[in-house]
Specification:
- It is a single chain.
- This protein has 148 residues and is of the alpha+beta class.
- It is built from 4 helices and 9 strands, in the order βαβαβββββαββα.
- β4 and β5 form a beta hairpin.
- The chain is globular and about 55 Å long.
- The chain has a single domain, classed as Small protein B (Small Protein B, Chain: A, Beta Barrel), CATH 2.40.280.
- It has a 7-stranded antiparallel β-sheet. It has a two-stranded antiparallel ribbon with strand order 3-6.
Length: 148
């Protein structure tokens, strides 16, 4: 079960990424089972600072199909587990207007813990996105030319 790797593919296109952190995530039993079945999405998720802690908001984890009334809510806020130094860094970063913290990847660690990779980011302008698309097209053209 080491092949769990849920990614936010839009993140690198939509945002300029700066610092990247790996954090644990506080989950209930049915949430873990759903994630191990790859029934989670972090496309619309972002992180907030609340009460001296970092929380991930809008991360969707589908309800566990075999869960009873102990099942979790699909879009509830989930606490991220970071040390105090990292939390204070993220808090300072989030106070600046236009900055955000977004999840990049949800994965299984070596010990079997579910971790989330988060990044400090700020949004790209339209011309930056066009430039990225142009560079991507140029790389494809070069690869095709090298293949011939």
């Amino acid at each position: 079960m080491k092949d769990l790797n849920i990614q936010n593919k839009k993140a690198r296109f939509e945002y300029h990424l700066q610092d990247i952190f790996t954090a644990g995530i506080q989950l209930s039993g049915t949430e873990i089972k759903s994630i191990r079945n790859k029934k989670a999405s972090i496309l619309e998720a972002y992180c907030i600072f609340y009460g001296g802690e970092i929380w991930i908001r809008n991360m969707h984890i589908t309800e566990y199909e075999n869960g009873s009334f102990y099942n979790h809510k699909p879009r509830s806020d989930r606490k991220l587990l970071l040390n105090k130094k990292e939390i204070s860094q993220l808090e300072k970063y989030l106070k600046i207007k236009g900055n955000t913290v977004i999840p990049l990847k949800l994965f299984l660690s070596e010990k079997g813990w579910i971790k989330v990779e988060i990044a400090c980011a700020f949004g790209k302008k339209m011309h930056d996105k066009r430039q990225d698309l142009k560079e991507k097209d140029d790389k494809l053209e070069m690869a095709r030319a090298m293949k011939r």
